[in-house]
Amino acid sequence: MVQKEATKMAHTLAQVWTRAELGLASPAVMVEVHLSNGLPSLTLVGLPESAVRESKDRVRSALLSSDADYPTRRITINLAPADLPKQGGRYDLPIAIGLLAASGQVPSERLAQTEWVGELGLDGELRPVAGILPVAMAASESGRTLIVPTEQLAVCAVVPNLRVLGASHLREVMAFLAGTGSLHTADGRSLAQESLPQPDLIEVRGQAMGKRALEIAAAGGHSLLLVGPPGSGKSMLATRMAGILPPLSEAQRLQSAAIHSLASLPVEPILAGQLPYQSPHHSASAVALVGGGSKPRPGAISIASHGILFLDELPEFDRRTLEMLREPLESGEVRIARAAYQATYPANFMLIAAMNPSPSGYFADDPKCRSTPEQTARYLGKISGPLLDRIDCQVELPAVEVSALQQLPDGEPSAVVAERVAQARSLAQARGKLNAELTPHDLDQFAVLDAAGKKLLAQAMERFGLSARSYHRILRVARSIADLAQSESVQTAHLAEALSLRALERRLHKLGNQ
Length: 514
What we know:
- By secondary structure, the chain is an alpha/beta fold.
- The longest helix is centred in the C-terminal third of the chain and has 17 residues, at 414-430.
- Helix 5 (132-142) packs across helix 10 (250-262), helix 8 (208-220) crosses helix 22 and helix 21 (451-464) runs parallel beside helix 23.
- It is 40% helix and 15% strand.
- The radius of gyration is 28 Å and the shape is elongated.
- The chain has 2 domains: 2-178, Ribosomal Protein S5, domain 2 (2-Layer Sandwich), CATH 3.30.230; 201-425, 3-Layer(aba) Sandwich (Rossmann fold), CATH 3.40.50.
- It has a 5-stranded parallel β-sheet with strand order 11-14-17-10-18, sandwiched between helices.
């Protein structure tokens, strides 16, 4: 009799590991399920939001549909730590496992070495959850086995040092815990080994200056602004940047895929080697661009991290929305603070922006231009000086002549340009960081100018009214140009070319003096 009572008490409490969502972090959560005598009821504590509170109904139906008993006792479920917000349907599976273990329907010996994530259907089917990759990355550091819905097994399997199993139904989980069945394992396919074609730079006719600016920006990781009339090839150039950038490292691919997972976007193309590319419409809100919301989610700048953010028709974006780019462009991350918690997302994106030179779309010396100098000044003034300061390269693209379109390709294929970019980046990496990330102290060491260079830069600063931030960005671009030329020092010719890539600032300065 005493032994039976001891056995009964041993099954009144079960502890199951799972993970919460907190930005890119995925802290461990222990689901504690306690059964006690009293009127049948269920109390869920631990700061659950509405979707988590509704799990009790999904779990009850899933258990009954899986030929399991739902305990008719007083049930208390605690999601610890209690001060961490819990959201989503990811807690369905661990709660169901806790109920089964606490009521003695499955053994609890394996629970200490496993973590469980999955949403349950009313029929007991396991469904995918958002943000599974951050869970897998965190679980790999814990040493425990992760059990996920079968649909997400292949994605989780790319995480190094992770033992992951998949289940498609609650019955499979019950058989696994009882020792009478096994779960699915990854089939060994590597999503990262596939190659995807990219648009080729040789398809762009003419625009030698634009191609050169694209190469310089790629070599140093610089932001780029393309200014030109409609049809001058701004979008074509932007879409071909990915083809000349080096492939992502394994760590970069995983982080980028994790962000896509949080945003409920496909992760397979990123894991296969495709660079992130985001091109939001100019009507995009600040939350869509930067991230946020009542439940903070990554915005376009974070989804484009380690890739490209292309903002077409830049002056058409809301000015307050554009101003929110200033800090991420400097720090490489975005912090979203809410009353309950704070989420930090990476924002290491390469900004490529495009715009027309005037409201009518044409340069002032073009007969098609119908904009007055005042209208053009107001139009260009929509881009604030502080934001413009943070764009390293600015280039004006003329209209493409018909003769250029009718000629054979006059440029180099992306593969040739990509090889030069890779060589330049290897020089930058030997210094410890990309040129776009060089600090003023680094520039004093790696971008030393001779007397002629110092004089040229001082004259340009005074003539065009450039800021101290522009001063350092010009030096960073000059360093990238020197790297492309395989030069150890920054020559006057490199500096002159870097100064030529401040086109919009010169145009604004000219309009301001009229």
